[in-house]
Design a protein that fits this description.
The complex is a heterodimer. By secondary structure, chain A is mainly α. Helix content of chain A is 66%, strand content 1%. Chain A contains 10 helices and 2 strands; from the N terminus they run αββααααααααα. Chain A has a two-stranded antiparallel sheet with strand order 1-2. By secondary structure, chain B is an alpha/beta fold. In chain B, α2 packs across α3 and α12 runs antiparallel to α14. Chain B has an 8-stranded mixed beta sheet. A two-stranded parallel ribbon of chain B has the order 5-9. Chain B has a two-stranded antiparallel ribbon with strand order 10-11. Classes of the chains: A mainly alpha, B alpha/beta.
Chain lengths: 334, 374
């Protein structure tokens, strides 16, 4: 509400005095060297990105030229056929759906953890808890994959049966028995994997919510929850959104974990709990080793990689836009 | 932000510790596995004739990787002057690298295609690429059905199961083949390979030949039928079959024995159902005909054999080399290594790791051909 639009006079420093880049030219040698180094790094990054884009496009064109199917709508990936037929419909569907499941599961939990660490937990508990969340990010994705395939999948059938009983009428949560190696399982695993990113950034943002406002609210008799609802959450909203976008970027590109828990096929199953589907990254990992350099196997995978690249760019662009709208509060820039 | 940075450092350090710890532990764990090859090496070492020196590069089929590992280990123990490096990159990539002249020989699950033979004339200059069958193996159909431990199936039923036409374990067709078994009404979960695979290729070749009415798909490395579940690699199939009640899948025999999963006995029309063993597979391979021309020993397997104790669901993998025009720098070493692989010792080492030695008649031809390589 009105508290939302509080002036920036509170604890986060106003951003203006930090950067004077556009204005005067640096005169002292140290400044000039540093400027050169910084500018060089920036340009290097752009060159690398451009090189990746050019490489992907260049390689993809060959495969797209020989493709007999419609690249966007074909439900098949038969690159060794004569002529090759492949399309990304199933992969795009699987990538987006598993990422959305991951977001729906992970973001509320992340916000909860972030709020707990920043506002509820005693300091003694908050610090180790923050470590533990950070540690989740340090676990290699193949380890998540192994854990998922060997522990999570066999233990999910109970949950699936429960969902079938109470949510089966929706059609998308119908369970027909069998191993729980579906897009939904992949989504659960992805949710765990993006948890640290989203939690970490959200926590940073929440910690920077103006102390004065919180204390003022408390002084007016607000409960802890009311303080969070009226001061912390509105202040952190854009930060949480950009954190989620970072997490989404990771979920979209995750390879090994998805490849180990999914039962891939080039069909879109009507139910999220049915085995089947696939994601861009998973398909690249699974098909690369047998993609013979003679045909267009590798180029076709690269073409699918190009689509993933574009999707990821769009997501990151969106995140940037949201951050830019409320630059002064963004935890990422603090 | 400052606090944050130390957090990350500490997290990283702890993570690194965990990972290196895990590495140390797994390093210890994997030691035992190589034990089976040891007894072979001491016996075999004496009969290996070392010729040539230097680096021998080869790549291809992953189905024969374990066989290659044993051969390379034994060969290298006897001939330290030669370094053999076999990369299991898959048959397609292996042949491709061979045709580009990057490797001395290639391993492949399927014989050279006619256009590949034409291409090989560039690398082989005065000759052409030929197939040398050196490794055979039974493809085991593994299953996990509670209360059933002696399952018999025939090609037709297998085809229907993997084509999702039979969906329950107590289906009449399965009951007919297993009158004494106590079959549950569990749903069948048929697992196939999600990656392109030589095992899939050979498995579907068998279904296509032995059950032409029930299996309409063309044999291919890529799984063609719809439905069922999929997993990556033979190990993925084995893990999933072991994990799920009602599951059935196919993999090279070693994955079944290694994971203690029961295998299906095949009703081939012979007097008794045939078990998936290396000896039975060798019997079926003995019925195969050589269809390659000249020095080429490409084979046509008899998938419909009814001979007693012959297990027809087999795959044969080849080494691909030039009959003439091999690279002079590696020719001597290549011949010497392949000679060992085709020798009695080399073939005997296979049976210990669940591959099938090639039958006498064929391996004799292979030895002659290897001697004639130039």
């Amino acid at each position: 509400m009105s508290i939302d639009s509080a002036p920036a006079s509170a604890s986060p420093p106003p951003p203006t005095p930090v950067s004077t880049a556009g204005g005067k030219k640096p005169t002292r040698p140290g400044d000039r060297v540093f400027l050169g180094l910084a500018r060089g790094s920036g340009i290097t990054l752009l060159v690398i990105m451009a090189a990746i884009a050019v490489f992907l496009t260049w390689q993809a064109t060959k495969a797209l030229g020989e493709n007999e199917g419609n690249f966007l709508t074909t439900f098949e990936w038969d690159v060794n056929a004569e002529p090759p037929v492949f399309g990304i419909a199933v992969l795009a569907f699987g990538t987006v759906v598993s990422s959305i499941i991951a977001m729906v599961l992970a973001v509320p939990v992340s916000i909860g953890i972030a709020l707990f660490i920043s506002h509820y937990a005693p300091r003694k508990l908050a610090t180790p808890l923050a470590y533990v969340v950070d540690l989740l990010a340090a676990v290699p994705s193949i380890v998540y994959g192994l854990w998922g395939a060997l522990f999570l999948v066999p233990h999910l059938t109970g949950l699936y049966e429960w969902m079938d009983e109470y949510l089966g009428w929706t059609g998308i949560f119908e369970y027909n028995g069998g191993a729980a190696r579906s897009l939904f399982t992949a989504g659960i695993l992805l949710a765990i994997m993006i948890l640290p990113v989203v939690t970490n950034v959200s926590r940073e943002v929440f910690k920077q919510s103006p102390k004065m406002q919180e204390e003022a609210a408390l002084a007016l008799g607000a409960t802890r929850w009311e303080v969070i609802r009226m001061s912390v959450l509105p202040f952190g909203r854009s930060g949480v959104i950009s954190a989620s976008m970072l997490g989404l970027g990771r979920a979209l590109g995750e390879t090994m974990a998805v490849a180990t828990v999914l039962s891939p096929s080039f069909l879109i199953a009507p139910s999220l709990l049915d085995p089947g589907g696939g994601t861009f990254a998973q398909n690249i990992a699974a098909s690369f080793k047998e993609a013979s350099p003679a045909g267009v196997g590798r180029e076709a995978l690269i073409a699918s990689g190009l689509v993933l690249f574009v999707i990821t760019l769009l997501v990151n662009g969106l995140a940037r836009l949201i951050i830019a709208r409320r630059k002064e509060y963004s935890g990422a820039n603090a | 932000m400052k606090l944050q940075r130390t957090n990350r450092l500490r997290a990283l350090a702890a993570g690194a510790l965990a990972v290196s710890g895990a590495l140390v532990l797994t390093a210890c764990g994997s030691d035992d596995n190589s034990g089976s090859g040891d007894d072979g090496s001491s016996k075999a070492a004496s009969n290996i004739k070392c010729e040539g020196k230097g680096n021998l590069l080869a790549s291809g089929s992953s189905a024969q990787k374990n066989a290659m590992d044993v051969w390379v280990k034994n060969y290298q123990a006897a001939c330290p002057d030669t370094q053999i490096n076999y990369k299991p990159t898959g048959s397609g990539a292996g042949i491709q690298e061979f045709l580009q002249g990057k490797t001395a020989f290639a391993g492949s699950d399927s014989a050279l295609e006619p256009e590949e033979v034409t291409q090989s004339k560039k690398v082989c200059k005065s000759g052409q690429g030929i197939d040398l069958p050196l490794v055979g193996g039974p493809i085991a159909v593994t299953y996990n059905v509670s209360g059933v431990d002696n399952l018999v199936l025939d090609a037709d039923t297998l085809a229907k199961i993997f084509d999702s036409k039979i969906t329950k374990w107590d289906d009449a067709a399965i009951k007919k083949l297993n009158p004494d078994a106590n079959l549950p009404s569990t749903k069948i979960q048929a697992f196939h390979r999600s990656d392109d695979s030589g095992t899939t290729d050979n498995f579907t070749k068998y279904l296509n030949k032995a059950a032409p009415n029930s299996w309409k798909y063309e044999p291919a490395k890529k799984w063609a039928a719809e439905g069922g579940q999929s997993a990556d690699g033979s190990s993925g199939i084995a893990t999933n079959v072991k994990q799920n009640d009602g599951a059935i899948g196919y993999a090279e025999l070693s994955y079944a024995t290694g994971n203690n999963i029961p295998t299906v006995k095949l009703d081939t029309g012979a007097d008794a159902p045939v078990e998936a063993t290396t000896a039975n597979a060798s019997k079926a391979i003995a019925e195969a005909k050589v269809v390659g021309k000249g020095n080429d020993l490409a084979m046509d397997l008899n998938y419909t054999t009814k001979a007693a104790g012959a297990y027809p669901m087999v795959l044969v993998t080849y080494e691909v080399a030039c009959d003439k025009g091999n690279d002079k720098a590696t020719l001597a070493a290549t011949k010497s290594f392949l000679k060992y692989a085709a020798s009695a010792d080399g073939q005997k080492a296979l049976a210990d790791i669940d591959y099938a030695p090639m039958p006498d008649e064929i391996i004799t031809k292979v030895r002659q051909t290897i001697d004639s390589l130039a």
